[in-house]
Amino acid sequence: MTDKSLIERLNWMIKVAPQENDKKTQKSWSWGSERKSLTTEEKLYAISNGFVANEEGFMPRERERKKWKEIIRKYLKKCPWGVPWMMIVFSVVQLFFNTFNSSDKTYQLLAFSTHHKSEIWRFFTYSLLHAGTAHLIINIILQLVISLPLETETGHFRTFFVYFGGVLSGSLAASLKNDGLLMVGASSGIYSLLMSHLAHVYLNFQTISHRTYRIIFVVILTLSDVIHSLSHCLLNNNEEPKIHIVAHISGAICGIILGFIFYKKSKTDNDDAKGAKYFKWISIACYLTFICFVIIVHVS
Predict the structure, then answer these.
(1) Contacts 24+ apart (CB under 8 A), 24-29
(2) Distance between CA 44 and CA 63 in Å, rounded?
(3) How sure is the predictor about 23, in pLDDT bands with cuts at 50, 70 and 90?
(4) What is the rounded distance in angstroms from the CA atom of residue 27 to the CA atom of residue 31?
Protein backbone atom coordinates (compact mmCIF):
# COMPACT_ATOMS: atom_id res chain seq x y z
CA MET A 1 0.00 0.00 0.00
CA THR A 2 1.44 3.37 -1.05
CA ASP A 3 1.49 6.51 1.03
CA LYS A 4 -0.95 8.11 -1.41
CA SER A 5 -3.54 5.37 -0.96
CA LEU A 6 -3.17 5.57 2.84
CA ILE A 7 -3.80 9.34 2.80
CA GLU A 8 -6.83 8.88 0.54
CA ARG A 9 -8.35 6.27 2.90
CA LEU A 10 -7.75 8.47 5.96
CA ASN A 11 -9.35 11.44 4.15
CA TRP A 12 -12.34 9.23 3.32
CA MET A 13 -12.67 8.19 6.98
CA ILE A 14 -12.54 11.79 8.20
CA LYS A 15 -15.16 12.77 5.64
CA VAL A 16 -17.73 10.10 6.61
CA ALA A 17 -16.92 9.77 10.35
CA PRO A 18 -19.53 11.08 12.84
CA GLN A 19 -19.01 14.48 14.41
CA GLU A 20 -18.05 14.54 18.12
CA ASN A 21 -19.62 17.85 19.16
CA ASP A 22 -21.88 16.30 21.76
CA LYS A 23 -20.87 12.97 23.29
CA LYS A 24 -24.28 12.54 24.94
CA THR A 25 -26.05 12.52 21.55
CA GLN A 26 -23.30 10.56 19.81
CA LYS A 27 -24.65 7.62 17.80
CA SER A 28 -22.96 4.51 16.49
CA TRP A 29 -21.86 4.53 12.87
CA SER A 30 -22.38 1.41 10.75
CA TRP A 31 -21.53 0.88 7.11
CA GLY A 32 -24.03 -1.74 6.05
CA SER A 33 -23.81 -5.33 4.94
CA GLU A 34 -21.37 -4.70 2.08
CA ARG A 35 -18.47 -4.22 4.55
CA LYS A 36 -17.42 -7.45 6.30
CA SER A 37 -14.13 -6.53 7.94
CA LEU A 38 -12.24 -3.53 9.29
CA THR A 39 -9.02 -2.29 7.81
CA THR A 40 -6.05 -1.35 9.95
CA GLU A 41 -6.59 2.37 9.30
CA GLU A 42 -10.21 2.16 10.40
CA LYS A 43 -9.27 0.40 13.62
CA LEU A 44 -6.64 3.05 14.33
CA TYR A 45 -9.18 5.78 13.72
CA ALA A 46 -11.66 4.17 16.11
CA ILE A 47 -9.10 3.75 18.89
CA SER A 48 -7.66 7.25 18.54
CA ASN A 49 -11.10 8.91 18.55
CA GLY A 50 -12.65 7.09 21.49
CA PHE A 51 -14.67 4.52 19.53
CA VAL A 52 -14.99 0.77 19.93
CA ALA A 53 -14.54 -0.95 16.58
CA ASN A 54 -16.46 -4.09 15.68
CA GLU A 55 -17.55 -5.76 12.45
CA GLU A 56 -20.69 -3.64 12.25
CA GLY A 57 -19.10 -0.23 12.64
CA PHE A 58 -17.81 2.23 15.22
CA MET A 59 -19.56 2.48 18.56
CA PRO A 60 -18.87 5.17 21.22
CA ARG A 61 -17.27 3.78 24.37
CA GLU A 62 -20.08 5.19 26.49
CA ARG A 63 -22.61 3.15 24.54
CA GLU A 64 -20.40 0.06 24.88
CA ARG A 65 -20.36 0.54 28.68
CA LYS A 66 -24.13 0.95 28.75
CA LYS A 67 -24.47 -2.24 26.72
CA TRP A 68 -22.53 -4.25 29.30
CA LYS A 69 -24.42 -2.61 32.16
CA GLU A 70 -27.69 -3.69 30.55
CA ILE A 71 -26.41 -7.25 30.17
CA ILE A 72 -25.32 -7.42 33.83
CA ARG A 73 -28.61 -5.88 34.97
CA LYS A 74 -30.51 -8.42 32.88
CA TYR A 75 -28.74 -11.38 34.48
CA LEU A 76 -29.21 -9.92 37.98
CA LYS A 77 -32.94 -9.67 37.37
CA LYS A 78 -33.03 -13.36 36.49
CA CYS A 79 -31.66 -14.24 39.95
CA PRO A 80 -34.72 -14.95 42.17
CA TRP A 81 -32.95 -13.85 45.36
CA GLY A 82 -31.34 -10.67 46.60
CA VAL A 83 -28.30 -9.95 48.74
CA PRO A 84 -28.42 -11.21 52.36
CA TRP A 85 -26.98 -7.92 53.66
CA MET A 86 -28.03 -8.52 57.28
CA MET A 87 -26.03 -11.73 57.50
CA ILE A 88 -23.17 -10.16 55.55
CA VAL A 89 -22.92 -7.37 58.14
CA PHE A 90 -22.91 -9.89 60.99
CA SER A 91 -20.27 -11.96 59.19
CA VAL A 92 -18.07 -8.87 58.93
CA VAL A 93 -18.47 -8.34 62.68
CA GLN A 94 -17.45 -11.95 63.27
CA LEU A 95 -14.39 -11.45 61.06
CA PHE A 96 -13.47 -8.33 63.04
CA PHE A 97 -13.66 -10.05 66.42
CA ASN A 98 -11.63 -13.04 65.24
CA THR A 99 -9.01 -10.99 63.38
CA PHE A 100 -8.34 -7.97 65.57
CA ASN A 101 -9.54 -9.19 68.97
CA SER A 102 -8.10 -12.66 69.21
CA SER A 103 -6.63 -12.23 72.71
CA ASP A 104 -7.54 -14.53 75.59
CA LYS A 105 -9.22 -11.61 77.39
CA THR A 106 -11.78 -11.31 74.59
CA TYR A 107 -12.62 -14.99 74.84
CA GLN A 108 -12.83 -14.80 78.62
CA LEU A 109 -15.22 -11.85 78.35
CA LEU A 110 -17.49 -12.88 75.45
CA ALA A 111 -17.43 -16.69 75.27
CA PHE A 112 -20.26 -18.58 76.92
CA SER A 113 -19.48 -20.42 80.14
CA THR A 114 -21.77 -22.08 82.66
CA HIS A 115 -19.65 -20.49 85.41
CA HIS A 116 -20.81 -17.02 84.29
CA LYS A 117 -24.54 -17.50 83.76
CA SER A 118 -25.34 -14.17 85.38
CA GLU A 119 -23.55 -12.34 82.54
CA ILE A 120 -26.48 -12.31 80.13
CA TRP A 121 -24.56 -11.01 77.12
CA ARG A 122 -22.59 -14.26 76.93
CA PHE A 123 -25.73 -16.08 75.78
CA PHE A 124 -25.41 -14.11 72.51
CA THR A 125 -21.82 -12.88 72.14
CA TYR A 126 -20.31 -16.36 72.01
CA SER A 127 -21.53 -16.51 68.39
CA LEU A 128 -19.06 -13.74 67.51
CA LEU A 129 -16.04 -15.90 68.37
CA HIS A 130 -14.71 -19.06 66.73
CA ALA A 131 -12.18 -21.75 67.46
CA GLY A 132 -9.75 -21.04 64.64
CA THR A 133 -9.78 -19.73 61.08
CA ALA A 134 -11.23 -22.90 59.53
CA HIS A 135 -14.14 -22.87 61.97
CA LEU A 136 -14.81 -19.19 61.17
CA ILE A 137 -14.67 -19.56 57.38
CA ILE A 138 -16.93 -22.63 57.33
CA ASN A 139 -19.54 -20.97 59.52
CA ILE A 140 -19.54 -17.75 57.50
CA ILE A 141 -19.95 -19.62 54.20
CA LEU A 142 -22.78 -21.74 55.59
CA GLN A 143 -24.73 -18.89 57.15
CA LEU A 144 -24.46 -16.78 53.99
CA VAL A 145 -25.57 -19.59 51.69
CA ILE A 146 -28.41 -20.71 53.97
CA SER A 147 -29.71 -17.18 54.56
CA LEU A 148 -29.58 -16.17 50.88
CA PRO A 149 -33.16 -17.17 49.95
CA LEU A 150 -34.56 -16.58 53.44
CA GLU A 151 -33.62 -12.90 53.69
CA THR A 152 -35.12 -12.16 50.28
CA GLU A 153 -38.37 -14.05 50.74
CA THR A 154 -39.09 -13.57 54.45
CA GLY A 155 -37.28 -10.31 55.26
CA HIS A 156 -33.85 -9.44 56.62
CA PHE A 157 -34.89 -8.84 60.22
CA ARG A 158 -37.16 -11.90 60.45
CA THR A 159 -34.30 -14.10 59.28
CA PHE A 160 -31.95 -12.47 61.77
CA PHE A 161 -34.41 -13.05 64.62
CA VAL A 162 -34.52 -16.74 63.72
CA TYR A 163 -30.72 -16.81 63.66
CA PHE A 164 -30.29 -15.15 67.05
CA GLY A 165 -33.16 -17.18 68.50
CA GLY A 166 -31.17 -20.28 67.58
CA VAL A 167 -28.03 -18.78 69.13
CA LEU A 168 -29.94 -18.16 72.37
CA SER A 169 -31.48 -21.63 72.41
CA GLY A 170 -28.05 -23.20 71.93
CA SER A 171 -26.54 -21.38 74.91
CA LEU A 172 -29.62 -22.08 77.05
CA ALA A 173 -29.39 -25.79 76.31
CA ALA A 174 -25.63 -25.81 76.98
CA SER A 175 -26.20 -24.03 80.29
CA LEU A 176 -28.08 -27.04 81.64
CA LYS A 177 -24.79 -28.94 81.79
CA ASN A 178 -22.40 -27.38 84.32
CA ASP A 179 -19.14 -28.37 82.67
CA GLY A 180 -17.53 -24.89 82.90
CA LEU A 181 -16.17 -25.09 79.35
CA LEU A 182 -16.03 -22.03 77.11
CA MET A 183 -18.37 -22.31 74.12
CA VAL A 184 -17.79 -20.33 70.91
CA GLY A 185 -19.16 -20.48 67.39
CA ALA A 186 -22.40 -19.76 65.55
CA SER A 187 -23.41 -23.34 64.79
CA SER A 188 -26.63 -23.11 66.81
CA GLY A 189 -27.75 -20.08 64.80
CA ILE A 190 -26.77 -21.77 61.52
CA TYR A 191 -28.76 -24.89 62.46
CA SER A 192 -31.69 -22.65 63.32
CA LEU A 193 -31.57 -21.01 59.87
CA LEU A 194 -31.15 -24.37 58.15
CA MET A 195 -34.13 -26.05 59.80
CA SER A 196 -36.29 -22.94 59.48
CA HIS A 197 -36.36 -23.70 55.76
CA LEU A 198 -38.78 -26.53 56.59
CA ALA A 199 -41.20 -24.13 58.25
CA HIS A 200 -40.84 -21.69 55.35
CA VAL A 201 -41.52 -24.41 52.78
CA TYR A 202 -44.60 -25.58 54.71
CA LEU A 203 -46.04 -22.07 55.04
CA ASN A 204 -45.52 -21.21 51.37
CA PHE A 205 -45.58 -24.59 49.69
CA GLN A 206 -47.65 -23.49 46.69
CA THR A 207 -45.68 -20.34 45.86
CA ILE A 208 -42.12 -21.02 46.99
CA SER A 209 -39.47 -21.70 44.35
CA HIS A 210 -37.23 -24.79 44.26
CA ARG A 211 -39.00 -26.32 47.28
CA THR A 212 -37.87 -29.87 46.49
CA TYR A 213 -34.23 -28.83 46.18
CA ARG A 214 -34.43 -26.91 49.45
CA ILE A 215 -35.67 -29.94 51.35
CA ILE A 216 -32.93 -32.06 49.77
CA PHE A 217 -30.37 -29.37 50.69
CA VAL A 218 -31.53 -29.38 54.33
CA VAL A 219 -31.43 -33.17 54.54
CA ILE A 220 -27.94 -33.43 52.99
CA LEU A 221 -26.41 -30.77 55.26
CA THR A 222 -28.07 -32.23 58.35
CA LEU A 223 -26.97 -35.80 57.60
CA SER A 224 -23.42 -34.71 56.78
CA ASP A 225 -23.08 -32.88 60.10
CA VAL A 226 -24.63 -35.77 62.04
CA ILE A 227 -22.17 -38.19 60.45
CA HIS A 228 -19.25 -35.84 61.15
CA SER A 229 -20.31 -35.38 64.79
CA LEU A 230 -20.75 -39.11 65.37
CA SER A 231 -17.39 -39.95 63.82
CA HIS A 232 -15.71 -37.21 65.88
CA CYS A 233 -17.24 -38.55 69.08
CA LEU A 234 -16.33 -42.16 68.30
CA LEU A 235 -12.83 -41.62 66.94
CA ASN A 236 -11.65 -38.60 68.95
CA ASN A 237 -13.87 -38.97 72.01
CA ASN A 238 -15.28 -35.52 71.17
CA GLU A 239 -12.03 -33.74 72.01
CA GLU A 240 -10.00 -31.04 70.22
CA PRO A 241 -12.37 -29.46 69.41
CA LYS A 242 -15.26 -30.35 71.64
CA ILE A 243 -18.61 -30.24 69.85
CA HIS A 244 -21.57 -29.06 71.91
CA ILE A 245 -24.03 -31.54 70.43
CA VAL A 246 -26.82 -30.45 72.79
CA ALA A 247 -26.49 -26.86 71.56
CA HIS A 248 -26.63 -28.03 67.92
CA ILE A 249 -29.77 -30.10 68.52
CA SER A 250 -31.42 -27.27 70.43
CA GLY A 251 -30.65 -24.78 67.65
CA ALA A 252 -32.07 -27.16 65.01
CA ILE A 253 -35.32 -27.84 66.88
CA CYS A 254 -35.82 -24.18 67.75
CA GLY A 255 -35.15 -23.26 64.12
CA ILE A 256 -38.35 -25.02 63.06
CA ILE A 257 -40.26 -23.44 65.96
CA LEU A 258 -38.91 -19.95 65.27
CA GLY A 259 -39.64 -20.34 61.56
CA PHE A 260 -43.34 -20.78 62.32
CA ILE A 261 -43.19 -17.77 64.67
CA PHE A 262 -41.43 -15.21 62.47
CA TYR A 263 -42.05 -16.32 58.88
CA LYS A 264 -45.27 -15.22 57.22
CA LYS A 265 -47.52 -17.15 54.91
CA SER A 266 -47.74 -15.78 51.38
CA LYS A 267 -50.94 -13.86 50.62
CA THR A 268 -51.31 -15.72 47.33
CA ASP A 269 -51.06 -19.09 49.07
CA ASN A 270 -54.44 -19.63 50.78
CA ASP A 271 -53.94 -23.33 51.41
CA ASP A 272 -54.46 -24.19 55.12
CA ALA A 273 -54.26 -20.63 56.45
CA LYS A 274 -55.82 -21.62 59.77
CA GLY A 275 -53.26 -24.39 60.23
CA ALA A 276 -50.44 -21.87 59.87
CA LYS A 277 -51.94 -19.73 62.66
CA TYR A 278 -52.24 -22.76 64.94
CA PHE A 279 -48.62 -23.70 64.29
CA LYS A 280 -47.53 -20.14 65.08
CA TRP A 281 -49.25 -20.03 68.48
CA ILE A 282 -48.13 -23.55 69.36
CA SER A 283 -44.56 -22.62 68.43
CA ILE A 284 -44.68 -19.48 70.60
CA ALA A 285 -45.91 -21.57 73.52
CA CYS A 286 -43.17 -24.18 72.98
CA TYR A 287 -40.35 -21.63 72.80
CA LEU A 288 -41.53 -19.74 75.88
CA THR A 289 -41.92 -23.03 77.75
CA PHE A 290 -38.34 -23.95 76.88
CA ILE A 291 -37.00 -20.61 78.15
CA CYS A 292 -39.07 -20.82 81.36
CA PHE A 293 -37.88 -24.39 81.95
CA VAL A 294 -34.21 -23.35 81.71
CA ILE A 295 -34.77 -20.39 84.04
CA ILE A 296 -36.55 -22.58 86.61
CA VAL A 297 -33.73 -25.14 86.52
CA HIS A 298 -31.10 -22.45 87.13
CA VAL A 299 -33.10 -20.77 89.91
CA SER A 300 -33.78 -24.05 91.70
Answers:
(1) 26/60, 26/62, 26/63, 27/60, 28/56, 28/57, 28/58, 28/59, 28/60, 28/63, 29/57, 29/58, 29/59
(2) 19
(3) very low
(4) 13
Q: What is the pLDDT of residue 181?
A: 76
pLDDT at residue 18 greater than cutoff 50? no
Q: Answer for the pair 144, 91: CB distance below 8 angstroms, yes or no.
A: yes
* 179-228 pLDDT per residue, tens: 767 888 899 999 999 999 999 998 888 888 788 888 999 999 989 988 98
Query: Which residue, among 173, 126, 127, 176, has the nearest Cα to 287 in the 3D structure?
Result: 173
Whether the Cβ atoms of residue 94 and residue 140 lie closer than 8 Å to each other = yes
Share of residues in the chain with pLDDT > 90 (%):
31
pLDDT at 20: 44
Q: Is the peptide bond before 80 cis (omega within 30 degrees of 0)?
A: no
Q: What is the CA radius of gyration of the chain?
A: 30
Predicted confidence (pLDDT) per residue in 39-74, tens digit: 666 666 666 665 655 555 555 555 555 566 666 666
3-state secondary structure of 119: coil
Q: How many CB atoms lie within 10 A of CB 232?
A: 17
CA distances from 288 to 21, 56, 170, 183, 256 (A): 71, 69, 14, 23, 14
C-alpha angle 117-118-120 in degrees, rounded to nearest 5: 85
The phi and psi torsions of 65 (rounded to 5 degrees) equal -65, -45
